[in-house]
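Exercise 7b. Backbone tokens:
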């Protein structure tokens, strides 16, 4: 699926005549909302950063959030990070979604198009004060939850750990 097909699908499902005219805005809002809830493998990126003499390094333009390794915590200020002066380091982070408005498609639209369709529908229904927003919001939340769960299983396995102690 690409951006044009996404707009067509959303317009067909909701029947709201203003969708094509507002598609760019609704899609960008949907992407911002998805970025708030998704933290999955395809979002992970690395960048080599070099701090200046004051320990300031600019964050990548697509920086969304740290990919925590449990060892490092650096203060972020604006679009920069503070570390040791002149330090060179690799930052692992979650990247923003590449917008389908600008790129035609992206990894999420390729592997989970229904998440995109539901996210844009939710924006459309919300803007129209349509009662269908609640149902679409629930469906979207379930899809995202399942996608995140599947991603975690694929990356870390599905093993359960029993910390209850020794059985007697």
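Sequence design result:
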């Amino acid at each position: 699926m690409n951006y044009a097909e996404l707009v067509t699908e959303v317009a067909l499902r909701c029947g709201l005549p203003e969708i094509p005219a507002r598609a760019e805005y609704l899609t960008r809002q949907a992407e911002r909302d998805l970025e708030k809830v998704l933290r999955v493998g395809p979002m992970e990126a690395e960048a080599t950063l070099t701090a200046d003499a004051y320990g300031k390094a600019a964050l990548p333009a697509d920086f969304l959030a740290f990919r925590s390794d449990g060892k490092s915590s650096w203060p972020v200020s604006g679009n920069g990070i503070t570390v040791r002066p002149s330090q060179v380091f690799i930052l692992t982070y979650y990247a923003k979604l590449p917008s389908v408005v600008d790129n035609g498609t992206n990894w999420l639209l390729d592997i989970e198009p229904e998440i995109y369709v539901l996210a844009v529908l939710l924006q459309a229904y919300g803007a129209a004060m349509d009662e269908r927003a609640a149902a679409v919001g629930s469906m979207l939340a379930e899809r995202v939850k399942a996608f995140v769960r599947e991603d975690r299983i694929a990356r870390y396995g599905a093993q359960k750990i029993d910390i209850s102690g020794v059985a007697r």
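Instructor comment: The two ends are 56 Å apart (CA to CA). Helices lie at 3-14, 19-37, 100-103, 107-111, 113-127, 132-156.
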